[in-house]
Amino acid sequence: xxxxxxxxxxxxxxxxxxxxxxxxxxxxxxxxxxxxxxxxxxxxxxxxxxxxxxxxxxxxxxxxxxxxxxxxxxxxxxxxxxxxxxxxxxxxxxxxxxxxxxxxxxxxxxxxxxxxxxxxxxxxxxxxxxxxxxxxxxxxxxxxxxxxxxxxxxxxxxxxxxxxxxxxxxxxxxxxxxxxxxxxxxxxxxxxxxxxxxxxxxxx
Length: 204
What we know:
Layout: H1 28-41, E1 46-48, E2 58-64, H2 69-73, E3 81-104, E4 112-127, E5 133-139, H3 140-152, H4 164-173, H5 175-199
């Protein structure tokens, strides 16, 4: 099992940057495991490395078995995993169709909105945690998850994929929440700066 890493919130500068390609894969399996553990703990379906403060082009995602009633829905997510995906340097090489979907984000906890414009089917070429070249064709919900996480590698949030009027409505309706996320992000960075000064290295 991996470590649970702090998830960076909207307003953290790392979430606005274009992440750097993964070139050295020596630490990728461990980082991917930490990201998966963090994703499971947060009850998410995907996570990008910038969301845990690491500006690398690495994402993880999972497909889950259907909930089996209320009791099943509260079970640890790792017990319901159908398939896990680890993708370094992912590139969408084919897109087809359109869908308008409901999305949320672990870096915007509690906020959801309809109207993100996504491709219905995609083909993603990537490298696994060992650097081996792979490709995956996905459609429907999995295609949305992969597009969402790949967007994080370029500093893009799901609401930026909405039509202009829908995006503005989202920003207006959630102005207070977004400001609070930014406040928490600044506070976290101040705490990290203090810790960095105290122990001489950046975590994780």
